[in-house]
Amino acid sequence: MATVRLYWRGTRAYIDWTESNGRFRRSIGQCDALEAERIRSAKEAELTHGVRILARLPRVRDYLEWYLAWYEAEHPTTICKARSEVKRFMTRFGHRQIDGIRPVEVEHYKRSRLLDDKAAKETVGKEIRRLKAAFNRGVEWKELDVNPLACVKAPRGVRSVAVKFYDRAAMRRLYRANPTRAPLWLFMAHTGLRRGELMGLEKSSVVRGRLLIESNPDASENGRTKSGKWREVPLNRYARWALRHLPDPLVSIHKDTVSGWFSSDAKAAGIGGSLHRLRHTFCAHMVIAGVPLRRVQILAGHADYATTEKYYAHLNAEGDADAVAKLRF
Question: Directed axis angle between helix 121-140 and helix 60-74, to 10°?
Answer without folding.
Answer: 90
